[in-house]
Amino acid sequence: MTSALWTHLVKDLRIEWRSLDAIISMLFFSGLVVVLFSIAFDPRGAFSQQIAGGVLCVATMFASVSALNQAWTREIRHQVLDAQRMAPAPGAELFLAKVLANFLFVSIVQVILAPFFFIFYNLHILGQAWLLALVLPLGTWALVANGIFFAALSIRSRNRELLLSLILFPIFIPALLAMVQATTAILTGENDPTLWIKMLLGYDIVFTTASWLLFDVVFHAE
Amino acid sequence: MDERVLLDHQFTVAAYVVTWAVQLGYLAWLGLKWRAQKRNAARAARNPR
Amino acid sequence: MKKLAIGLYAALTVALMVWGFYQAIYVAPDEQTMHEVQRIFYYHVPSAMVAFLFFAISLAGSIGYLACRRNRAEWAQISDAWALAGAEVGVVFCTVVLITGPLWGRRAWGIWWTWDARLTTTLVLWLIYVSYLLLRRFAAGPQVQTLAAVLGIFGALDVPIVYMSNRWWRTQHPAPVFGGGEDSGIKDPAMLHAFAWNVIAWLAWGILILALRYRVERQHQKFAAQEAQEALDA
Fold it and tell me: Per-residue pLDDT tens for C116-160?
């Protein structure tokens, strides 16, 4: 890890550690979403195993957006963003550091939320449980990587938060599909999730590469 | 049997009408934009700085 | 001279549309199973072809803009105008596709919608380009063009992924496919004729609208540049 990447990463982690803003708001919001979905789609029914995967993924999505929305606002205050632009370190490293930090935050929320999820939905994993440890991070990475990138796109817009969701969700659809299908396959044990896992991996590689290559274009757009 | 034919006809008409409504609506909006641009250009031409 | 050419082209386009309509409604024979509802096909499929073509033009414009913006400013502006025009007119045609499709599907196959590869991809494409237009509307400042170009590229990257992921999804959960599957085609020559005329007509119409949108955008660009210059000079 280069020193610029490490510096950015440590900075973001330290700021978050002091206030825990992102994690607390994400935790509460995703918890709310899980409860709302439980009321909307009865988790006691026969189909609870079928929809649990989808609910978990959508809850992660909505929770992540609340973190992504404030991902760049820290930099906008006190013109930190302009200082970042003038620094000689490549912008792509700032991008990757932010993705890593936010990926960590969302994963922490997922780990805390998972037991409650299992309780509400009475989940028993019929497939290979360890695969979940592969699927969820891959899906979360897809969300956070694209989210941080598009959040940077929408910094200077009127409805910053709304625009982020509007841009992110359509492009995220195939990753959402893969994540839900893989999770459901693992939970119900009915299908083979390997295809979906490979798809998620492919999606992650394509979009992380594209974001890495194009971030400087966006960062220094003038 | 007749009702099916009638509904078929209504749906077909609806599809064609919607197509034209969308296309002509967009053309109209484009025309308004064109006019606004012309006005802007005229105003700019009138006050050269 | 140019005005005359444009006027002639517009008149030709209108004539083509009228002819296409006549072909679709009066000349093309009644289809065996779907009867009258099948005629929606003559508007639905050409619109889809034009929409995809224009989205491709938009992508080319986005790439062109990013490639030209440092050294060839004028070309960059032209590219950006094509990117925007292609996206906007593409969304118009795609909207037509997404409305006429369910109308056809409801009567022909009994369902308004299904999540097969084609429909899902079309819907996601529509969503992506609408989000592109929203970015252009909401984002402020001189970097809008760059940001939009980047989003255009991301959106285009996503489309094949959506298509493939949906195909895999469908192999696990087979579901009805609109339009009778990938390999069914039109065999009746009279229908083929009507279809071909409508493709030509809608393409002509689309090009007319696209060119108009491009012109309006170029005018807007020049006006904005002029205003910026005046603000600087003042």
Answer: 888 888 999 999 999 999 999 888 777 889 999 999 999 998 888
Structural domain boundaries, residue C143: 37-180+187-233
Domain total of chain A? 1
Domain ranges, residue A113: 3-219
Beta carbons of A218 and C146 less than 8 Å apart: yes
**What ipTM does the predicted assembly reach?**
0.90
DSSP secondary structure of A55-119? HHHHHHHHHHHHHHHTTTHHHHGGGHHHHHHHSSS-HHHHHHHHHHHHHHHHHHHHHHHHHHHHH
Q: Identify all chain B residues contacting C226, using CB atoms and an 8 Å cutoff.
A: 44
Q: Residue A96: which of A202, A14, A207 has the closest Cα?
A: A207
Number of H helices, E strands in chain B: 1, 0
| Residues in Cβ contact with A79 at an 8 Å cutoff, skipping those fewer than 6 apart | none
Q: Spell out which residues of chain C touch residue A174, defining contact as CB-CB under 8 Å.
A: 124, 158, 161-162, 165-166
- Which residues of chain B are within 8 Å of residue C95 when distances are taken between CB atoms? 22
Query: What's the number of domains chain C is made of?
Result: 1
Instruction: Give the chains touching C; criterion: ≥3 Cβ pairs < 8 Å.
Output: A, B
What does pTM read for this prediction?
Answer: 0.89
C-alpha to C-alpha distance for A98 and A13, rounded to whole angstroms: 9
For residue C74, tell me if it sits in a domain.
Answer: yes
**Cα A11 to Cα A4: distance, rounded to the nearest angstrom:** 11
- The dihedral through the CA atoms of C124, A182, A38, A20 has a sign that is negative
The verdict on residue C29 lying in a domain is no
Residue C196 lies in a domain: yes
Q: Across chain C, what does the average pLDDT equal?
A: 88
